[in-house]
Amino acid sequence: MRIDAYRNLNAAKRDMAVYIWSLRLDGKVAGHHASIYLTDVDLRVQPGGLARVKRDSRRTVYAYLRAASYRVPSTDLTMTAPPAGYRPLTCNPYKEGVFVFADDRTPAPLHLSSVLLTPLGAFARV
């Protein structure tokens, strides 16, 4: 069973600095969490959704992380910096249009062993 995780855009409208993550299973939202551990992760960008974002200048879910498994920590992870051994991960439709490492804007591999989603953003294990 694969699960998709993406940034919740409605929560982002309220506070752009805090990330809330949505989990989707079989095309339906399965929950919202501030912190999630993902393993065996594929980075996905939908070309049609990306084109629609650029054309209409409206936010929509066009990129997501598809994981083989996930775990929600019992308490939300509060941190002020990325954890050791992880790099910040981002996807900006108006710049690269693909997932990149936020610290140097280099493209991220399409498959990662694990990703940590927190209120500060997404972090890939390197």
Strand order of the largest sheet: 3-2-1-5-4-8-9-6-7
Outline? globular
How do the SSEs run, as a string of H and E?
EHEEEHEEEEE
Question: Which percent bin holds the helix content?
Answer: 10-25%
- Gyration radius from CA atoms, angstroms: 14 Å
Describe this structure as you would to a colleague.
This protein is mainly beta. It has one domain. 13% of the residues lie in helices and 45% in strands. The protein contains two helices and nine strands, in the order E-H-E-E-E-H-E-E-E-E-E. It has a nine-stranded antiparallel beta sheet with strand order 3-2-1-5-4-8-9-6-7. Strand 2 (21-25) and strand 3 form a beta hairpin. It is globular. The two termini are 25 Å apart. The relative contact order is 0.23.
Short description:
With 126 residues, the chain is mainly beta. It contains two helices and nine strands. The protein is globular and about 40 Å long.
Protein traits:
single chain, 126 residues, mainly beta, 9-stranded antiparallel beta sheet, 2 helices, 9 strands, 13% helix, 45% strand, globular
Write the layout of secondary structure elements.
Elements lengths: L2 E5 L1 H6 L6 E5 L2 E6 L2 E10 L1 H10 L6 E9 L14 E6 L7 E3 L9 E8 L2 E5 L1
Antiparallel strand pairs: 1-2, 1-5, 2-3, 4-5, 4-8, 6-7, 6-9, 8-9
